[in-house]
Amino acid sequence: MANIQDLLKQREELERQIKQLQESSRSEAINTIKELMAQNNLSIEDLQSNTRSGGKKGESGGKTGTVAPKYRDPASGKTWTGRGLKPKWVTEALESGKTLDDLAIKA
After folding, report:
1. Could you tell me which residues come within 8 angstroms of residue 61 by beta carbon, excluding any fewer than 6 positions away?
2. Which stretch of DSSP H or E encloses residue 72?
3. Domains of the chain: total
4. Looking at per-residue confidence, does 104 or 45 come out higher?
5. Which domain does 98 fall in, by range?
6. Cα–Cα dist 74/93, whole Å
7. Residue 51, Cβ neighbours under 10 Å: how many?
8. Residue 52 confidence (pLDDT)
9. Tens of pLDDT along 46-73?
10. Strand residues in the chain grouped as ranges (E)
11. What element of type H or E holds 90?
């Protein structure tokens, strides 16, 4: 049976190997992205664009505005549209065994 020192050395070596693989994988990903950007004549600004059509911001033709809430916290009355990160109250309700159906706002 291995002692604690042996296991700590093994963990240290594994963490070093993991870090090397992560750095290597990251470098490969960056190189692939750079190659694809060059092949498709893309710039950093192209990647940061909000539109899918390549037009300027706000020219995508899609609807913008607010979305009606779909879920309500029965205790506090707080609402959530179902988009984006789940609010804490939703997460807590789901962990307590409730479903999103239980929180849904019924029309």
Report:
1. 53
2. strand 71-72
3. 2
4. 104
5. 71-103
6. 10
7. 13
8. 57
9. 888 765 554 555 555 566 778 889 999 9
10. 71-72, 79-80
11. helix 88-95
CB neighbours of residue 30 within 10 Å: 10
If asked whether residues 40 and 75 sit together in one domain, one would say no
Nearest to 101 by CA among 82, 87, 84: 82
**93: in domain:** yes
Q: Is residue 90 part of a domain?
A: yes
Residue 88 has which token pair?
């804490």
Segment holding 106, helix H or strand E: none
- Reported as a pLDDT band with limits 50, 70 and 90, residue 45 is confident
- pLDDT tens profile 79-96: 999 998 999 999 999 999
The tokens for 5 are 């020192």
Extract the tokens encoding 12.
């240290």
Domain contains 83 = yes
- Closest to 55 measured CA to CA, from 45, 63, 70: 45
Q: Residue 43: helix, strand or coil by DSSP? A: coil
Is the domain of 44 the same as that of 76?
no
